[in-house]
Amino acid sequence: MIPETDTSPLLQEKKPGWRGLSSFALHLLAMVLMLGDHLWATIFPYLNWLTCLGRIAFPIFAFMIVEGYFHTRNFKKYILRMLAFALVAEVPFDLVYGSMAFYPFHQNVLWTFLIALLLIHWVEKTKQQQNRVKSALVLAAAFLVGFLLGNLAMVDYYGVGVLVVLMFYVLRKRTVLNFVLQALCMYYVFVELIGGYYYPVTIFGHYFELQQEAFSLLALLPIWLYKGRQGYHAKWWQYFCYGFYPGHLLVLYVVWQLLLR
After folding, report:
1. SS (H, E, C) 49-75
2. Is-contact 120 135, C-beta < 8 A?
3. For residues 88 and 244, what is the distance between their CA atoms, to the nearest angstrom?
4. What is the DSSP string of 152-197?
5. What's the pLDDT tens digit per position in 149-182?
6. What is the model's pLDDT at position 2?
7. The model's pTM
8. N or C: which end of the chain has fewer CB within 10 A?
9. Contact of 143 with 127, CB cutoff 8 Å
10. Can you tell me the distance from the alpha carbon of 195 to that of 190, in angstroms, rounded to the nearest whole number?
11. Are 229 and 18 in contact (CB under 8 A)?
């Protein structure tokens, strides 16, 4: 899910002091959190804190997909690589999610990112025509098409997952206003739209309900600490990031089935 090495000044510029989290750090954090979530879904279903932390992973990946689009040197290779690993990941994902090698009612998250990437590319190509009205209409259409395609294809996080990627695309600039809008959009998507499980919490005699998906908003903290620095980017690490998704799903499924015997 990371692009080829980019030599842009944004990534190569060296400044004294702490320079924020790197792309490497964000990917590593997201993979660890995703692993925790999938450990809960398979081997440790009684450890709810694993899936709570796992909620943080998807927004980080969604954000990095947008960064990947703008930093890759070859969009065609980027999208084909994503497609290849989406196909490879489908069987392990179906085994974990549907307990069968072919489960057509839910697709892995790489398909979510593929839809979003193609729509972002569509919008960017339209922008090159320097027609603001047309660009605005295409952007609005991209949100609508992304939502519909995500739901119809039954990709992970469905249509709202595609919208989260597009949200990070629209609000990509590092401004206070965009940070506030990101938080508001994330709250609306994950708490109001997705909702789901909640935990009863009592603090100082006051009872309230904590939405499980609300933990997704914590992803904004490391995202805001990222300042465009790539960090470690060896070729093996690039393919490890892609292969980790189907690989860890397959390993977890095998271990899970062995423990059930």
Report:
1. HHHHHHCCHHHHHHHHHHHHHHHCCCH
2. no
3. 11
4. HHTBTTHHHHHHHHHHHHHT-S--HHHHHHHHHHHHIIIIIII---
5. 999 999 999 999 999 999 999 999 999 999 999 9
6. 55
7. 0.91
8. C
9. no
10. 6
11. no
